[in-house]
Design brief:
Blueprint: E1 12-14, E2 24-28, H1 33-47, E3 52-58, H2 72-90, E4 97-102, H3 115-130, E5 135-139, H4 146-161, E6 167-171, E7 189-195, H5 199-208, H6 211-214, H7 229-235, E8 239-245
Parallel strand pairs: 1-7, 2-3, 2-5, 3-4, 5-6
Antiparallel strand pairs: 7-8
């Protein structure tokens, strides 16, 4: 699916990354979402010398749950290593990356509130308190994947608890999948485009670091997850699409 399927040229405004306030935090529901959704922007922001941190929420272990060669702890280590390698190419140092290691496929939702929810919000709040961002890149609030929606909810709950005034943009992932995606509600969101430019090559190289998700590396779980060429093509276009809810104004 083309990145232009749900938004058209008249709807898109060009986002000048020079105007994005730092520190910047990119929140990824799974290891790889930060690169797929924001890799071009991350590379450009770092080339400008802007401070970028990345927070990965889930442990990513459910991509190949039946693999014996890569049991859960080894899968987690593998995916975290891929994230560190990918972000190094994009200019983010390892000490700027944090992993919450919440359960993949079961990131707690805000409602109904459970003990796991309260713990997850507390952990997000502790991180945001230690590294308060001026701007966040969050997964799209209405992404078809429940972990993406839950991640948005947890971060928003933590921001409210901290009375944060940070602005944020949302990046779609699974909305580019023709089997799952829905048109964006442009009455609630302002759509932005970021021209990746020379960062496209870096982004492609960073995506290639996620060998566990590209097929061939974990070969003993035939039902394991694999990024399709069609989905990868949606993330390797000259533009990245971001959605800004009208409740978060970037020039605040």
């Amino acid at each position: 699916m083309s990145a232009y399927s749900f938004v058209t040229e008249p709807d898109l405004k060009s986002l000048q990354l020079e105007s994005v306030a730092e520190p910047i935090l990119v929140v990824a529901p799974h290891p790889d979402d930060e690169t797929l959704g924001c890799g071009g922007a991350i590379a450009q922001l770092r080339s400008m010398g802007k401070c970028v941190r990345v927070l990965v929420v889930s442990d990513g272990t459910m991509s190949h749950p039946n693999s014996r060669k890569y049991p859960p702890q080894k899968r987690r280590q593998l995916r975290e290593g891929e994230t560190i390698a990918a972000l190094a190419l994009l200019g983010v140092e390892a000490d700027k990356i944090a992993f919450l290691r919440l359960p993949d496929g079961a990131v707690p939702t805000v409602a109904p509130e459970t003990e796991a929810t309260a713990d997850a919000i507390a952990r997000c709040r502790a991180y945001l308190s230690q590294y308060p961002p001026a701007t966040l890149f969050l997964p799209y609030q209405f992404d078809p994947h429940p972990d993406h929606r839950a991640t948005w909810q947890l971060v928003q709950a933590a921001l409210r608890a901290l009375s944060s005034t940070a602005c944020w943009l949302e990046y779609p992932i699974w909305d580019w999948d023709p089997q799952q995606g829905q048109p964006f509600d442009l009455e609630q969101y302002r759509a932005w485009q970021v021209e990746i430019g020379e960062g496209l090559g870096l982004k492609k190289d960073a995506i290639a670091c996620y060998r566990s998700q590209l097929g061939g590396l974990i070969d003993d779980d035939p039902d394991g997850f694999q990024l399709t060429p069609e989905l990868i093509a949606s993330f390797t276009q000259p533009l990245e699409i971001y959605l800004e809810p009208y409740t978060s104004i970037l020039d605040c």
